[in-house]
Design goal:
The complex is a heterotrimer of chains A (314), B (321) and C (296). Chain A is mainly α and 314 residues long. Chain A is built from 14 helices and no strands. The longest helix of chain A is centred in the N-terminal third of the chain and has 36 residues, at 87-122. Chain A is flat and about 85 Å long. The longest helix of chain B is centred in the middle third of the chain and has 18 residues, at 187-204. Chain B has helices spanning 48-55, 83-89, 101-104, 111-123, 127-140, 157-169, 187-204, 215-221, 239-244, 249-256, and strands spanning 6-17, 20-32, 37-41, 64-73, 76-77, 94-97, 175-179, 207-212, 224-229, 232-238, 306-310, 313-316. In chain B, strand 7 (175-179), helix 7 (187-204) and strand 8 (207-212) form a beta-alpha-beta unit. In chain B, helix 4 packs across helix 5 (127-140) and helix 4 packs parallel to helix 6 (157-169). Chain C has 296 residues and is mainly alpha-helical. Chain C has a single domain, classed as MetI-like fold (Orthogonal Bundle), CATH 1.10.3720. Chain C contains twelve helices and no strands. The chains are: A mainly alpha (314), B alpha/beta (321), C mainly alpha (296). Chains in contact: A-B, A-C. Chains A and C meet through helix 1, helix 6, helix 7, helix 8 and helix 11 of A and helix 5, helix 6, helix 10, helix 11 and helix 12 of C.
Chain lengths: 314, 321, 296
């Protein structure tokens, strides 16, 4: 198992290096001169030129990329062009909030999505099924920034106007109450997606012979559905949820923006606006690494769910 | 206590779909004594599996529905039982083995766990205790008990079928229904599995309904044979009678389609002409009459009643009434 | 003789395609949800085309006497912070959102389709190179990749479409690649090769048309996704710039006035949702109609 994890981690390396190249190349052609940005508009041209030389901005593209890559292995992502602090530290400061938010959202999504999917599949063609599927369709069609604003409107603004207090705070971070609305906002689309997959996967599994065997043993329907069927149905759910985790990460940028959560996403938007390209490339790289790690985790989850996969890990 | 373990009276099972109603089982009457082995034979689609699922009340609903009749198990009508009571019977008093061992075991649980689940459910013991019973049962079907923690994918088809047999018999059921247990297996493995079933039947005194289209399998285990065609029993009787003195034109055709290796010259293979009718469009009268070489005018109007032509040998055909 | 044979063959192919199309249409027509989606898309298209006639005001027509007014008879979805009619801005915005959806998806479809077909057709090293590159792009969460591209290109409507378009390339590349891979082995491709057709001809004339079903489904569902991604970027101020009435930008403007003018943020969001819902309904329906086996 450990060998497999290491093998997978190593196989991630070329992709991540590819990502660094793509991101570095994009940022290289970003308008605006980093040296000027760092020193300010009024800085004398000679000093800017000296700075460019020091930052290696006059080197050929590939040399610059090589230096960047070399720095990366020492966890050196350069310096923020606005604060002058190491990019690594800037990101490390903001990472926990983003991870908490994403984790809370994925928990919400899995919990709601799996349950709704099961209900829909076990009551196929009934009102429950139709209702759950329509809600799920609305969920995947709804922009999460709109949902965020609507929740603020209802639970912060209207609630305050009616009851004289705020049910869930509309901005800030730190307590569980702060996390409720962002987690729901970010988790909804994912929950809807998981509902749809869980339903179709469950419908497929419930047709299998071993489900009939389970019933013929005299197991009650709940055990058949939640133990025998669900465990088999989870495979595609986990895969798809993992692949779509990237969408959730993207959504977290907007969610952080709406609820003023001090995470990486807000930092990204700020950095893009101030053309702080070292920070932008560091953040994007971090997102890609998180995404890859999550997919690795998904792979390992398979083994826990399905013993057939374990064979391949040996 | 009545002498009969199982008595099916005029059972009807229909599948209702958008395209119409498929009458899969139409008025079956069947009896089974304790410890008896009955072979239920017929072509694919004759309604054998549906009958079996009907006994366990596991006909998929929708679209399937038991529309009439009685199934008396030890004198009690299973069709009147609550679902909760049925669950106490399934896997405990009546067990079933399914056709395809490759897909009938849950891939994500160890085989021991799947057997133990059955034991723990019906004997009210922990899964852990059930596991020791599982080990015992595996040994009984000639699988080393040490493999109790292995998963289905680590077993061959024949072994999986034996695991399923072990699972079905773990609670010493009074009745075992085996639905084509050897069809999906290699010929050599088939013999092996049959040996095990035969051995166990003697050992634990369970009644058996052996569903198959393989007359060889029937000859091996059954004491009595019932022949099913298009949802009805056309002939039923002692093994010897059915094999050597079959009366119903369909049964004659069925045996006629087995090539006789001793007599290659004279008898040509004579399979019955035509196909079994679609359960959605069953013909009026006797369902066999469109294919029957002896069909009379009456056959297309009325359904023949079952007639006892010899002690224990019943035929549903106007030739005998 | 030869021409006659080809004509006959062509007619046969046409007939086969027509019946397949008809068959799909027949199944689609039975699906009420898909029809609802299709109807909504047609209506939205009409709104976009006749926006000038439908909207009572211009999209940037300001009225300082009517600032932040709630829904009324004159402005039935209210007015914004510059006294502009929210309804009119949404109606005009439908042009932008629909164009964004179609243009970005077309970019993804053409470039991704081409790359995918080439990868599948040539296989080996070409395939490896293209698909590994697609893997790299897919390793960056889509929305975040779009932010990176927009930050490099500078925020504007055009750059937004380019960024989101590039984003969808890998999806189409993958789907067309797998589709072409499976049709590539067919005998008529072999036949085309034997009679000396060029590679490009085979790709465009045979392989891509035969992959139309999955492409159509993917494209329809993708349009909905790109509308959400694009409006998200506009919401962050990285897409369409004021005073353009792009729906995401409208929402972004409404965010600042959430406490005093709820209608400013609410209705543009409803517009986005309805549009995306329509494409999702149609996409789901198409998938079921083209491949009934997938339907449960």
């Amino acid at each position: 198992m450990l060998k497999y994890i290491v093998k997978r981690l190593i196989s991630m390396v070329p992709v991540i290096i590819g990502v660094t190249f793509v991101v570095f190349a994009i940022m290289h052609f970003t308008p605006g001169d980093p040296a000027t940005l760092l020193l300010g508009e009024e800085a004398p041209p000679a000093e800017v030129e000296r700075m460019r030389e020091r930052m290696g901005l006059n080197d050929p593209f590939l040399v610059q990329y090589g230096n960047f890559l070399f720095g990366l292995f020492r966890l050196d992502l350069g310096f923020s062009l606005t604060t002058g602090r190491p990019v690594f530290n800037e990101i490390a400061n903001r990472l926990p909030a983003t991870i908490q938010l994403a984790a809370a959202a994925i928990l919400v999504a899995i919990f709601i999505g799996v349950i709704m999917g099961i209900i829909a599949s076990t009551r196929q063609y009934t009102v429950f099924d139709g209702g759950a599927m329509f809600v799920a369709l609305l969920g995947v069609s709804m922009p999460n920034f709109w949902l965020g604003l609507m929740m603020i409107l209802v639970f912060s603004v209207f609630w305050n106007n009616t009851f004289g207090y705020v049910l869930f705070p509309s901005s800030g971070f730190g307590t569980l109450r702060h996390l409720v609305m962002p987690a729901i906002v970010l988790g909804t689309a994912h929950a809807a997606f998981i509902t749809r997959i869980t339903r179709s996967s469950m419908l497929e599994v419930l047709r299998q012979d071993y489900i009939r065997t389970a019933r013929s043993k005299g197991l009650n329907e709940r055990v058949v559905v939640y133990l025998h069927a669900l465990r088999n149905a989870l495979m595609p759910v986990v895969t798809m949820a993992g692949l779509r985790f990237g969408v959730l990460l993207g959504g977290s940028v907007v969610t952080e923006q709406i609820f003023a959560i001090p995470g990486m996403g807000r930092l990204l938007v700020e950095s893009v606006r101030s053309q702080n390209y070292t920070l932008v490339q560091g953040i994007i790289l971090t997102y890609a690494i998180i995404f890859s790690l999550v997919n690795l985790a998904v792979d390992l989850l398979y083994a826990a769910i399905d013993p057939r996969i374990q064979v391949q890990y040996k | 206590m009545s002498e009969k373990l199982l008595e099916i009276k005029d059972l009807h099972v229909h599948y209702e779909t958008d395209e119409g109603t498929a009458r899969a089982v139409n008025g079956i009457n069947l009896e089974l004594k304790p410890g008896e082995c009955l072979g239920l034979v017929g072509e694919t689609g004759a309604g054998k599996t549906t009958t079996a699922l009907g006994i366990l009340r596991l006909v998929p609903d929708p679209p399937g529905r038991i529309t009439g009749g009685e199934i008396l198990f030890r004198g009690e009508n299973l069709l009147n039982k609550k679902e909760r009571e049925m669950r106490r019977i399934r896997g405990n008093k009546i067990s079933m083995i399914f056709q395809d061992p490759m897909t009938s075991l849950n891939p994500v649980f160890s085989v021991g766990r799947q057997i133990a689940e059955n034991v723990s459910l019906h004997q009210n013991v922990s899964i852990k205790k059930g596991m020791s019973r599982a080990r015992e049962m595996l040994e009984l079907v000639e699988i080393p008990g040490s493999r109790v923690h292995d998963y289905p994918h680590e077993f061959s088809g024949g072994m999986r079928q034996r695991v399923l047999i072990a699972m079905a018999l773990a609670c010493n059921p009074a009745l075992l229904i085996a639905d084509e247990p050897t069809t999906a297996l290699d010929v050599t493995i088939q013999a092996q599995v049959m040996e095990i079933i035969k051995g166990l039947m003697k050992q634990i005194n369970t009644s058996l309904i052996m569903i198959t289209h393989d007359l060889g399998v029937v000859a091996e285990v059954s004491e009595r044979v019932a022949v099913m065609y298009a949802g009805q029993l056309v002939e039923i009787g002692p093994l010897r009678d059915i094999f050597t003195d079959h009366k119903h034109p369909y049964t004659i055709g069925l045996f006629g389609s087995i090539p006789d290796i001793d007599d290659r010259e004279s008898t040509r293979l004579t399979p019955t002409k035509g196909l079994m009718p679609d359960a959605m469009e069953l013909p009026e009268g006797c369902p066999f009459h469109p294919r029957c070489p002896e069909a009379m005018e009456k056959c297309s109007r009325e359904t023949p009643q079952s007639v006892e032509i010899k002690p224990g040998h019943f035929v549903s055909c106007f030739l005998f009434s | 003789m030869a021409t006659e044979a080809t004509t006959v063959k062509k007619a046969a192919v046409a007939r086969k395609q027509r019946t397949r199309f008809q068959e799909t249409w027949r199944r689609l027509r039975k699906n009420r949800w898909a029809l609802a989606g299709l109807t909504m898309i047609v209506l939205l298209g009409l709104v976009a085309i006749f926006a000038d006639f439908i909207a009572p005001y211009g999209y940037n027509e300001q009225n300082y006497f009517r600032i932040l007014e709630g829904p009324s008879r004159d402005n039935f979805l209210g007015t914004d912070n510059l006294g502009r009619d929210v309804f009119s801005r949404i109606v005009h915005g439908s042009r932008l959102s629909l164009s964004i959806g179609f243009i970005t998806t077309s970019i993804g479809l053409t470039v991704g389709g081409f790359l995918g077909a080439v990868a599948a057709f040539y296989g080996g090293r070409v395939d490896n190179l293209i698909m590994r590159f697609m893997d790299i792009i897919l390793a960056i969460p889509g929305f975040i990749f779009a932010i990176a591209l927009v930050s490099a290109l500078g925020p504007s409507l055009t750059n937004l479409m380019i960024a989101v378009g590039i984003n969808t390339i890998p999806y189409f590349a993958r789907i067309i690649r797998s589709s072409v891979m499976s049709t590539k082995e067919n005998e008529f491709i072999e036949a085309a090769r034997v009679i000396g057709s060029s590679d490009l001809w085979i790709i465009f004339k045979h392989l891509i048309p035969n992959s139309l079903a999955p492409i159509l489904v993917q494209a329809t569902l993708r349009i909905g996704d790109t509308i959400i991604i694009a409006s998200g970027l506009s919401f962050l101020g990285l897409g369409a710039q004021p005073p353009l009435p792009e729906w995401g930008a409208l929402l972004s403007a409404g965010r600042g006035y959430l406490r005093v003018a709820w209608w400013m943020a609410t209705f543009p969001g409803v517009a986005i949702m309805v549009t995306v819902l329509a494409f999702n309904l149609l996409g789901d329906g198409l998938r079921d109609a083209l491949d009934p086996r997938l339907k449960n």
